[in-house]
């Protein structure tokens, strides 16, 4: 883990409150793996006090790329940072999605949950068969399609709830058919909690290795403050920042 003073090299608005940041952060870029995250001090002042967690979209030393959706105070400040600004970054933090060489893997991304799976595909699509199931409320939530088209993915399945992009409906509607026809050996998912809970139910009976990257409100990002605790299936708690953010899907106690 490094506490690095990075430098923003590019801020790009992709439309509808989604932004891309290219950041010079050589120490973090060298070590970042798909699934790891960073804690950012979003403004040069102490307001807001707490850093905010973000996944790493891709890492090509000496740069990392971040992709974020404006939600509240912190991300509003972050979107206004300019090329040349220093950016205080802690990372890489948390664990990574497992490397499963030679396996056929289905990546499942809901909205901005594309971030760690984009990183996974970027690193591994050339060496093993990867499928992508990507969904959102509408086309506005499905950025990065052109960048995904440029990757050697085995197949891409796009869903939008309003039908403005790809097939109409939640991405879970495509799951059964894809698993039946493509027979992946593992799934890796990231997205809203309701989506992950639905996947946990649907994948329970299938003999696959299933992993999910979770989000939680975070204070420290490295295991000290307990603000990110989630209930596990064994009745204990896990810290999303230090035990995760990637967990075997069945390890978490999902709301019914
Ligand atoms: C490991 C991890 C990786 C993440 N990666 C990304 C990413 O790559 N891109 C991205 O856009 N966002 C990502 N997030 C979510 C991001 O951290 C929050 O959207 C951000 O912290 C909101 O800050 P804010 O100050 O703008 O919002 P706030 O003013 O703090 O809150 C605005 C609203 O967002 C909710 N919220 C705040 N934090 C979270 C959170 N962690 N999860 C869910 N809801 C939250 C609040 O409850 C509130 O309703 C990630 C979160 C985690 C834990
Ligand atoms: S964010 Fe502090 S323990 Fe996880």
Output the keywords.
21% helix; 7-stranded antiparallel sheet; Elongation Factor Tu (Ef-tu), domain 3; 7-stranded mixed sheet; 7 helices; binds flavin-adenine dinucleotide; single chain; alpha/beta; binds FE2/S2 (inorganic) cluster; Rossmann fold; 256 residues
Describe, in plain words, how this protein is organized in 3D.
With 256 residues, the protein is α/β, with parallel strands linked by helices. It has two domains: 2-93, Elongation Factor Tu (Ef-tu), domain 3; 105-251, Rossmann fold (3-Layer(aba) Sandwich), CATH 3.40.50.80. Helices cover 21% and strands 34% of the residues. It is built from seven helices and 16 strands. It has helices at residues 26-31, 73-79, 114-124, 145-149, 172-182, 193-203, 240-243, and strands spanning 2-15, 18-24, 37-41, 52-55, 58-60, 63-69, 86-93, 105-110, 130-136, 155-160, 167-168, 186-190, 209-213, 229-231, 237-239, 246-248. Strands 4-3-7-1-2-6-5 form a seven-stranded antiparallel sheet. Strands 11-10-9-8-12-13-16 form a seven-stranded mixed sheet, sandwiched between helices. β12 (186-190), α6 and β13 (209-213) form a beta-alpha-beta unit. The longest helix is centred in the middle third of the chain and has 11 residues, at 114-124. It is globular, with a radius of gyration of 18 Å. The N and C termini lie far apart (36 Å). The site of flavin-adenine dinucleotide has 20 residues, from β4, β6 and α2. Flavin-adenine dinucleotide is lined by residues 37, 52-55, 67-69, 71-75, 112, 115, 215-218, 245.
């Amino acid at each position: 883990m490094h506490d690095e003073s990075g430098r923003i090299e590019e801020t790009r608005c992709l439309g509808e409150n989604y932004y891309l940041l290219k950041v010079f952060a050589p120490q973090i870029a060298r070590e970042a793996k798909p699934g790891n995250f960073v804690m950012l001090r979003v403004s040069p002042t102490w307001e807001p006090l707490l850093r905010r967690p973000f996944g790493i979209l891709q890492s090509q030393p000496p740069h990392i790329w971040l992709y974020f959706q404006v939600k509240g105070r912190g991300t509003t400040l972050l979107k206004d940072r300019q090329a040349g600004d220093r950016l205080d970054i802690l990372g890489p933090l948390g664990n990574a999605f497992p490397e499963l060489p030679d396996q056929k893997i289905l990546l499942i991304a809901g909205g901005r949950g594309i971030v760690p799976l984009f990183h996974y595909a970027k690193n591994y699509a050339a060496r093993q068969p990867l499928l992508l199931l990507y969904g959102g409320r509408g086309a506005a939530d499905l950025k990065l399609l052109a960048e995904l088209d440029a990757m050697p993915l085995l197949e891409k399945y796009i869903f939008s709830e309003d039908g403005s992009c790809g097939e109409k409906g939640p991405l879970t509607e495509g799951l059964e058919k894809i698993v039946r026809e493509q027979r992946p050996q593992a799934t890796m998912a990231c997205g809203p909690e309701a989506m992950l809970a639905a996947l946990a139910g649907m994948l329970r009976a299938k003999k696959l290795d299933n992993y999910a990257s979770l989000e939680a409100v975070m204070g420290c990002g490295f295991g000290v403050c307990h603000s990110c605790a989630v209930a596990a299936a064994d009745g204990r708690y896990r810290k999303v920042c230090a035990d995760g953010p990637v967990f075997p899907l069945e390890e978490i106690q999902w709301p019914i």
